Structures are given as C-alpha cells and as structure tokens.
Amino acid sequence: MSSLLLKDILLQKKSFLFALGYSIFVLIAFQNEAFAETSYIMGAMATAYMLVVGACAYEEKNNSEVILNSLPLKRAVIVRARYLSSFVFVCLAFVIIGTLGALMKGLGLPIPVRYVRISDVIAVAISLSLLTSLYFPVYFRYGYIKSRFFNLIMFLLVFFVPGLGLSFLKGGSNNETLDQVMDKLAVAPDWLIGIALVVVVMIIMFVSMRLSTWIYEKREF
Q: I need a labelling partner for 179 at 20 to 30 A (CA). Which of 33, 55, 185, 209 fits?
C-alpha cells in the first residue's frame, strides 16, 4: 500500500512546481472581501484535486494499471490506495500553500490575511473526499481519458463552489426551511457539527470505495 502511495507522489514531481506557482497566484489574487478567508481552502483544494487527477492521468499514460494487475496484488488494494492518496495530497497541498503563506506573513506582506488554520485542512479533506467519492467510480469504470468531461465539471466545482458557498451563507437565502436549518447549525457546538460531517463523509466514501472495488474487479485490461 505504501509503495503505491509513494509511486503516485514520485510520478508527479513536475506537478508540484505547478502547484507552487498556482498557490502563489491564489494567495495574491483572491484577497477581496468575499474570498480572502477562503484563499487557503480554494488553493489547497484545487491543488490536491489536480494531484489526484494527475496521478490517474500518469497511471493511464504509462499503462501502470496493466503492470499492477499482472502482479500478485489484489485490485481492492489498488482501489484503497487511490482513495488514501487523496488525503496524502491534501497534506502536501497544505505544506505548499501553508509554507508560502507563512513566508509572506513573515516578510511583512499584507497578503495573505492570516495563517493556515486546522479548520482549513478539515474543510478541504471533507470536500475532496466528497469529490473523489464521485469521481473515482467513474474513473475506475471508464479510465482517465473517457472520464475527462466529468473531471472538468468536478474541477469547476472545486474552483467556484467554496467562494460561492461562503457568499451564499453570508447573504442568507430565500428558503425559510433552509434558513431555519442554518440558524440551528449556527448555535450547534462546532465539535458536534464536525463529528456529524466526518461520519457522513466516511459513510459516503465507504460506499464509493466498495462501488469502485466492485467495478474495478469486473474490468478487463
């Protein structure tokens, strides 16, 4: 399992340079009132998802799946490694953007407005888990090339949803029921909301992983 995760990291050495440049761009560009508080989230989210998809692309480009499936390695292990790699990429994304943000603050620059918070990491981990839970079953069924259109939709969601969601929550909605739910969540303890989100995401991810395993075990190469 660890060797599969290491493979995904080593194959993308050039992608980390792009992630570095993209992180600098996000920290500089997204500093208006609507996006300043979510700049770390948007930057890390897009970077982590790019690394997830990049690993899938390199896998198909190098015919790694054919080689892996010729080894005495269960396909369920390959699927689990792909899901676990998303959390590894979240950590790497925050190492990149968090270090850049700290250096900028240390140099006395007015950007970014703050340092990375643990809530940023949790938000990205939860969001990426949901996105990969949608993407991986499609990827394991059709491969990277045929799933590119679905991947484009997912990337647009990664880029725009965090900021739009924050603006929506700040501005309120015209739905009375939704407003009541938001009011109740506003007074609920943070730890309770956090636990509930983690449980829901774990269930979704578990179902997605089982589905991906079932699909991948039936796929022919």
A: 33
